[in-house]
Hints:
This protein folds into two domains: about 10-325, ABC transporter transmembrane region fold, CATH 1.20.1560; about 350-600, Rossmann fold (3-Layer(aba) Sandwich), CATH 3.40.50. It is built from 20 helices and ten strands. By secondary structure, the protein is of the alpha/beta class. The strands form two sheets. A six-stranded mixed β-sheet has the order 6-7-8-3-9-10, with helices on both faces. A four-stranded antiparallel β-sheet has the order 2-1-4-5, covered by helices on one side. The site of adenosine-5'-diphosphate has 11 residues, from helix 11.
Amino acid sequence: MTAAALDLPAPSGAxxxxxxxxxxxxxxxxxxxxWLVALLLYVAGFVALPLLVASAIxxxxxxxxxxEVARRVLWLAGVxxxxxxxxxxxxxxxxxxARQIEYELRNDIYSxxxxxxxxxxxxxxxxxxxxxxxxxxxxxxxxxxxxLMNMVQTPVLYVAVIVxxxxxxxxxxxxxxxxxxxFILIARLLGRSIHHWSLLSMEGLANASNxxxxxxxxxxxxxxxxxxxxxxARFEDVNQELYRRELGLVRxxxxxxxxxxxxxxxxxxxxxxxxxxxxxxxxxxxEDFFAFAMYVFQLTFPTFLMGWVVALVQRGAASMQRIDxxxxxxxxxxxxxxxxxxxAIRGEIELRGLSxxxxxxxxxxxxLRSIDLHxxxxxxxGVVGSVGSGKSTLASLIPRLxxxxxxxxxxxxxxxxxxxxxxxxxxxxxVPQESFLFSATLAENIAFGRPDALRSEIEQAARRAQLVQxxxxxxxxxxxxxxxxxxxxxxxxxxxxxxxxxxxxxxxxLILDDTLSAVDAETETAIxxxxxxxxxxxxxxxxxxxxxxVRGADQIVVLGEGRIVERGTHAQLLAMGGLYARLAREQAExxxxxxxxxxxxxxx
Length: 604
Ligand SMILES: Nc1ncnc2c1ncn2[C@@H]1O[C@H](COP(=O)(O)OP(=O)(O)O)[C@@H](O)[C@H]1O
Ligand SMILES: [Mg+2]
């Protein structure tokens, strides 16, 4: 299997990254076409201005009539204004295009992230992903804006100015150009060092964000174990390393303008020295001397900028490479070309010798081993087993959250790998063990899978999930904001909200993965009564570590280390006197004990 197929960061080359960026540029031919025209006009103005200044000065020096002087000055003023306007326009164009590409890139990354399967999120760290989505996109925008503008404009500017200078005074031009090869060499060396340090700092930043994110998510654990000092010290190390790398970047960045600013001063010395001689000897007109001096000064800014631009382009290229890496991850779970359009799902599930290991065939121990199981449409399957026996894995394979091999898992007799994902997931609702509430109202959380749902449908789902009492207790009822930035719900309330969310989908197959573990026994019974009614004629898979949750199921399987160790109905399994019977006995005793404790301790 290739790295991409395993959702690993595929080593992406600079070429692939640039090709991808090229495709974004190609989407905006008008922007870039008009920009190139504006850029050429700007360069023309840039070259013309010193010549116009020289001609105005020449008119004064030669004692031409006042009207002629005024005419040349007016020309100068006009061209100056036009150049400024064109410059403004061309900058706006290229910066707008950069924003546009940034916008498209961000959208593309977001929808790509949504397409990637869960296994991807086990392998990539959140902080790393965040950093690619924020910092790297930012660097690419700078690359496409200031970077691209100067990379294209400055060389054209240089060529045009050198041609103009050569026309004025070839000898002086050659002298002025002498220090440039040296300068280019220095700029390259510095650029390389900036590239090196900026890669290191971005990596350091990703490490720091990652640690920050982990600490915030795990703050309850950090506090419970009084580990604040230790985590702070660990963070300090990461932060210290980031600081060291950023200082390296600062040093490299600071050297650039220092070196580049020496250059025009150097050129000016040469102009004064050689040019002065030429004027004395009558080989050069005084006004051309002004034009020369202006060219050198006008080139100062773009030259100065070039050092920074090289660094920016290199950083942007590195960022584009990191983005390309992310976008090149091929979703390992996607519709096959031979997907069969299925309009509806009845709900029959069949497992034929199903085996499954996390992380593909790369040696990890199998989480499920040769499971054979047939769940007729409309029946209820109970799955019990101890922690780590593979219950959740089994549950998540049915909606294809992980990839199974062909020929092992069938829904309605069709291999799940050949059912379009949308169809599969629309008709199968799985309530995971840990369900997430978004920072939104309770109603919005319940209607997550069906944003267009009617209020009455939401209320019905809440009622079926036994949430009515809780809703009444919330400050704004169904419109209370819950989740991270709202009212914290209890474990049981969250589970019932997740159940209501699944019920909204009106699925053909409902899978409850230990969904009611935090719900008290009485409420659980009420929910089950309700589900029996709602789901009469549909397929329900109830995964639980509690025997009480599955006792009414049409068939029950007991998992142990990824294998089915017992199967039958509740009565059959009890009669068998095996693992299930033992679990049932233990749990019944515990229930009696808890009831005693809960009832005021009288029974104990
Ligand atoms: N995302 C995962 N990546 C790797 N291994 C996993 C993952 N989820 C579960 N496992 C492993 O698979 C086995 C079965 O886990 P699971 O299905 O969650 O058990 P259960 O739900 O019965 O407690 C365990 O050994 C567990 O460590
Ligand atoms: Mg589980």
